[in-house]
Every structure is written in C-alpha cells, then in structure tokens.
From TrEMBL:
Top-rank taxon: Bacteria
Protein known as: Hydrolase
UniProt xrefs under Gene3D superfamilies: Hypothetical protein af1432
Residue intervals of the HD domain: 18-179
Gene Ontology CC: one annotated term: cytoplasm
Signal peptide residue numbers: none
Keywords on record: Hydrolase, Metal-binding
Species annotation: Roseovarius indicus
Length: 194
C-alpha cells in the first residue's frame, strides 16, 4: 500500500468522524439527549447482529452490517431529513447523491466505488440484504421513541397515520414479525398520546 492510498483512507476516516456531529430527531432510549447519526449507524449494526435470525432467506448479515455502517454517511453533507418532518424530502435524493459522490470520492477508486455501490444498494432496497437493512432502519427509531415516551414523535408531529404510511411498507414486506411486534405498541402509544 502506498502512502497516497493510506492518506486517502485516513482523509475519508477523518471526514467520517463528522457524522458524530449530525444530530437526529430521535432521542436515546433514556430520553437524555438526541442521538447522532454515527450512534444510530452503530446501533443499527448491533440490531443486525442481534436480530439476524429474522433476516429473509439469502441475507448476508455481514453485508447488511457494512450497509448500515455506511447508510447515513451522506448526512455529513446532506444533513438528516427526519422521516416525519415536512421539509427536505423533495431534494433529499439529490443532496444525498451529491454527498455520496464527494465522500466516497475521498477513498481510493476501487474502495470508494465499492462503498458507494453498497450505499446505492441500500437506497434502492431491492436485494435481500438491502431490504433487511432498510427494515432495521425503520424498526430501531420506533423502539427508541417508545422507550423515551415518544419525545421525537411529539416534537415532529408524528401521528399513527404517518407512522403507518412511512414505516409499515418496509416492515410488513420484509420482516412481518417486526411489524406485528411494533405496530400494536405504537398504536397504543398514539391512542394514549395522540
């Protein structure tokens, strides 16, 4: 490995550190503060490891973990677009694609292309690996919102209808057990607090 290759990799890793500064609208389970996108990515990787027996047949859990570690890196440039928010959705794909070009472009070409392809696969959510990764990305925040008594939901105007429209398709189609587990809990929370 040349010094230039190592320099490029370190530059990418240093830039990736900025993901720790991107604040999300979901709090930690204890409600003490908002999580950042780096914490979210790590937590999702742990979700994949713990819940891998729910993955659809043919899923490669190591690829899922890699996807989850990379899936929100574009938020360094594009910012986090809250799923229940009312702004930022129209140009989100364009902002994130531009961020992916820049960030993965910091790496040596073969590695950068490989990482970007993995990120694009996650975004497309067509392969079993990407569908499971996307389902986990939809499953983790409601669990944290339930644990924190809905701080993120309250502050972002979430409703049961919005939740069902934005979360159900990914969970019902990929891991119905996740939907069957979370839906009654969330519906009951919104019934009490809506």
């Amino acid at each position: 490995m040349t010094d230039a290759t190592l320099d490029a990799r370190i530059a990418f890793l240093n830039e990736a550190c900025r993901l720790k500064s991107v604040t999300r609208t979901t709090t930690l389970c204890d409600g003490s503060r908002y999580e950042n996108s780096a914490e979210h990515s790590w937590h999702l990787a742990l979700y994949a490891m713990v819940l891998e027996d729910h993955a659809p047949e043919g899923t490669d859990i190591s690829r899922v973990i890699r996807m989850l570690l990379l899936h929100d890196i574009v938020e360094i440039d594009a910012g986090d677009t809250p799923i229940y928010g009312t702004t930022g959705h129209d140009d989100q794909a364009e902002r994130e694609a531009e961020a992916a070009r820049r960030l993965f472009g910091l790496l040596p070409p073969g590695q950068g292309d490989s990482f970007r392809a993995l990120w694009e696969e996650f975004e497309a959510a067509v392969t079993p690996d990407a569908r499971f990764a996307k389902a986990l990305d939809r499953f983790q925040p409601p669990n944290q919102n339930l644990a924190s008594d809905g701080i993120g939901w309250r502050e972002n105007g979430a409703t049961w209808d919005k939740f069902e429209a934005r979360i159900a398709p990914s969970l019902r189609d990929t891991v119905p057990a996740f939907w069957d587990y979370i839906a009654p809990k969330v519906k009951a929370w919104f019934s009490r607090n809506g």
